[in-house]
Amino acid sequence: MSIEKYDLAIIGSGSGNSLITPYWDDKKVAIIDSGVFGGTCLNVGCIPTKMFAYPSQLASYPSEGARLGVDMAFQSADWPAIRDRIFSRIDAISDGGKHYRDVELDHTTLIAEEVHFSGPKQLTTASGRVLEADQIVIAAGSRPSLPDVPGTNLSGVHTSDTVMRLEELPKRIIIVGGKYIGSEFAAIFAGLGSEVIQVNRSGQLLSSHDKTVSERFTRVAQEQWQLALNRTLHSIEHEGEQLRVNVSATGQNNDDVVESFTGDVVLLATGRFPNTDRLNLEATGIDLVGDVIARDEYLRVLSNGHPLKDVWAIGDIANPEMLKHVANHEQRIVSHNLENPANMKPDTLGPIPAGVFTRPQIASTGLTEDDARAQFGQDAITVKIQAYGDTAYGWAMEDSHGFVKLIANKSTGLLLGAHIMGPEATNLLQPIIMAMSFGITAHQMARGQYWIHPAMAEVVENALLGLDVPESGQL
Q: What is the rounded distance in angstroms from the CA atom of residue 453 to the CA atom of residue 461?
């Protein structure tokens, strides 16, 4: 048996692709990926979805303008033109990256096959190639998780991997799932002119978010598209040229169909699953925490609770957060540690922020109110909810839904969590992330700098000032 030897083998071409720095120029590197080069974010995740979300947001401006006395009209959306503009850019980036690694660089080898562990430092591809590497980085990502019900394989049933390549804008789309993927696509398709029915198992959308966000977003979403709450997918079947989605009442007898919806397209947005089950991790004794790979603080994988020498893991396959900016950060940590084994850096960054590019936009970081009260005690925290509409820029927008919710420790004044719903929520969150990351108290943040008046960011300033925390001396 011929064994191919490498200095570094990377499973996955998303964030793992960036591990190949000039340090590896005189070494042999293998990138192994059976999917589209560039990984989830570039091809089927955060980048294309946000490129759809922006034109959908533009399409909503007439209704916003009407409140302010501005008469605009939305005529229609050219779905093929939007789709082709987006993927002509993305596909070119993917193809260019693949060509660069596979053809232009002599020291890298691209292996476009499925791969699994066949020993502690050995990998075997689907065609039988056997690879051994001094260092292995597992960056194999995740995939859409499908419910175990009849009909998920029918034509016209899509996941987030395929729905953005539709030939035409569906007249009616049924979206199963109420977390961030389902809610983003509901806003996209509704904004562009589709009739949207969003089916959700619980009574609230974005149920893993802070309860104020979840409750208020559910109300706002219900004004924009149809919701079928407390409904669990039972089955999908053809009804002529359309699809019929049958649902049961959540928590009741799942054999009883209580409601059905018909549509041109069905989108299953029922979560993502890390690709740990495809790698035969048992062959190398890698530990799991739930469904993700267990790691130490240096992002080395664990085997029987101990670091497995020279095997690392980053991204969705090892972090339940499944966020691109998290994977990118972890790539930088592992890249440093690969190149500086005598001076490794631990992963200490926090808190992790997240954005939901639905309508209205949502951003969050840190603890929810319930988690903060459970962790620190009912009376140890202070909470302020500040409405956009109570600030000068909020008056200009006539905003009636947006808010900033801050959670802080009463005694220290340190921020514990932040949750924003409204225009530019993800941008408004960033200075709060900075304060939490560098230990700046709420009062220091509010009074230790100028805030532009009457900019939208004043809603954050007012929320900070509304917290019951110690003052730090600034006027």
A: 11
pLDDT confidence of residue 1: 65
CB 267 within 8 A of CB 194: no
CA geometry: angle at 47 spanning 79 and 345, to 5°?
Answer: 175
Amino acid residing at 237: E
Task: Compute CA distances 286 → 121, 132, 283, 337, whole Å.
Answer: 11, 17, 8, 20
Q: Are 277 and 138 in contact (CB under 8 A)?
A: no
Residue 312, token pair as written in the block: 């690392």
CA distance 206 to 175: 14
Cα 132–chain centre separation: 33
Distances 128 to 10, 115, 118 between C-alpha atoms, Å: 18, 9, 11
Q: Tell me, what's the pLDDT at 475?
A: 54
Let me know: does 12 contact 42? Beta carbons within 8 Å: no
List pLDDT tens digits, range 389-415: 999 999 999 999 999 999 999 999 999
pTM more than 0.90: yes
| Tokens, residue 249 | 């009442």
- Residue 126 carries which side chain, given as an amino acid letter? A
**What does the alpha-carbon distance between residue 301 and residue 121 come to, in Å, rounded to a whole number?**
12
* Contact assessment for residue 63 and residue 360, using Cβ atoms and an 8 Å cutoff: no
Ranges under pLDDT 50 in the chain: none
Say which residue the tokens 């590197």 belong to.
29
The whole-number pLDDT of residue 432 equals 98
Q: Would you please indicate which residues are annotated as catalytic (active-site) residues?
A: 453
Condensed to tens digits (0 to 9), the pLDDT of residues 90-145 reads 999 999 999 999 999 999 999 999 999 999 899 999 999 999 999 999 999 999 99
What is the DSSP secondary-structure string of 336-385? HHHH-TTS-------PPEEEE-SSS-EEEEE--HHHHHHHH-TTSEEEEE
**What is the spatial distance between Cα 19 and Cα 8, in angstroms, rounded to a whole number?**
10
Residue 227: strand pairing partners: 198
**DSSP code string of 378-396:** TTSEEEEEEEGGGSHHHHH
Give the Cα separation of 335 and 139 in Å (integer). 13
Distances (CA, A) of 259 to 227, 262, 268, 316: 13, 10, 17, 35
Which residue(s) pair with 260 in the sheet?
246
Q: Give the C-alpha separation, 338 to 20, whole Å.
A: 11
* Other Cβ atoms closer than 10 A to 284: 21
CB 267 within 8 A of CB 185: yes
> Is 32 in a helix, a strand, or coil?
strand
pLDDT at 357: 98
The predicted pLDDT at position 252 comes to 81
